[in-house]
Amino acid sequence: MSRRRQKNQLVLAFLAEGRGEAPRAAEEGTELLAAKREAESPDVGEQLMEEVCGRENCKQALARVKANKGSAGIDGMSVEQFPGYLRQHWPEIREQLLNGTYRAQPVKRVEIPKPDGGVRKLGIPTVLDRFIQQAVMQVLQRRWDRTFSEHSYGFRPGRSAHQAVSQAQQYIAEGYRWVVDLDLEKFFDRVNHDKLMARIAERVSDKRLLKLIRVFLCAGVMENGLVSPVDEGTPQGGPLSPLLSNIVLDEFDRELEHRGLRFARYADDCNIYVRSRRAGGRVMESITRFITTKLKLKVNAQKSAVARPGERKFLGFSFTNARAPKRRIAPKAVDRFKERVRELTRRTRGVSTERMANDLSQYLRGWIGYFGKCETPSVLKGLDEWIRRRLRSAIWKQWKRGGVRYAELRKRSVGKDLAAKTAGSAHGPWRLANSLALAVALPNAYFDSLGIPRLTVSR
């Protein structure tokens, strides 16, 4: 009997069990349990493309694409224009997907600066391709996510970077006070297509879906009007790439688990925690060899290191070196924060106080949502004071252009002598922003009234 036929019979027996037809022997019960597990496993699904094209799945995909917004691809179609286009052309597109003839368009190359220098190359698919990738991702993620490692936190429902940081913190508290900090060089650009497709084929038997994924991987990149072919990498910018990255690195996770190592991974950012520097050196050497030979990827030796956790950053956080380590904001993350606040509160920016406050508030709310979970409130308090000094300095500069410094100080309850002395001072805006007069005229409550959130208010 062929394996497929045997498998189908077992699945039918499992379904019969659900109708109350009890198995007659213990060995049949064992076979039914095995069949149930196999029926639930990710590799079952000859008709996955029908599920991808299903009405509810497509409605969810469209809602997600509209919520994510994003810029147009090479065809110039916006997210706002897409629903109308889809209503008109969906029967034809669906037919192409189901018969395996759909062709993706090249992605548009966009470069954005990295926080630590250099640029990150993004590939922006057309809105239609983003929609189809999202529909595929939803179907596969429902099947695959439960098979991934519990130590993998990136791009997974119900998991977050904060959970990865908390796991790392727990390892340190348990005595694993050395970290093997691995940096995969240009990970998304170096993924081997053949190896990736082989891994997917272990989980997917619908050849149409395998062909579609390969089409997205090989769609090419348009840059300066020219389309270049792509033979490796998963372009960052499409909804499917994060899931594919987890497929690639699942083999890495399993290797670390097999070795009994303590680790936390978020996408291509992975930290392994050990008890000594010597152990860290051994792990770094052997894992680098595994990544190079088995995964066909490259470790960036300059950015990877074995060190104390307090000397490295993980997802924007670092840790104190105490026996009960605390999360703190990594120095580079603080530097990036200050750089952005300087841009938004620049004295020569030429916008109103209300506009400046609105732009700053939007940025701060997002930043607090992530870094507000640090456990060093003194750092947040210092940044709060620094922000308000920046704002007082910017407003003082605006008052000079209007020639209203003395009048504004008096209007805001500053005494005559102090107002005159401050308005006539030769000191610059930054120094005067720390003066008594401006503390009275522009108290923290004033910035609260503008809607500017405090970094420490929740604490």
Q: How would you portray this structure in words?
A:
This protein is of the alpha+beta class and 459 residues long. It has helices at residues 3-18, 26-40, 48-52, 55-68, 82-99, 127-144, 161-173, 187-190, 193-201, 207-217, 241-258, 277-293, 331-344, 353-371, 377-402, 405-411, 416-423, 429-432, 436-441, 444-449; strands spanning 107-113, 119-124, 178-183, 221-223, 226-228, 262-266, 269-274, 305-307, 317-319, 327-329. The strands form three sheets. The chain has a four-stranded mixed sheet with strand order 2-1-4-5, with no helix packed on it. A four-stranded antiparallel sheet has the order 6-7-3-8, sandwiched between helices. The chain has a two-stranded antiparallel ribbon with strand order 9-10. Strand 9 and strand 10 (327-329) form a beta hairpin. Helix 1 crosses helix 2 and helix 9 runs antiparallel to helix 10 (207-217). The N and C termini lie far apart (66 Å).
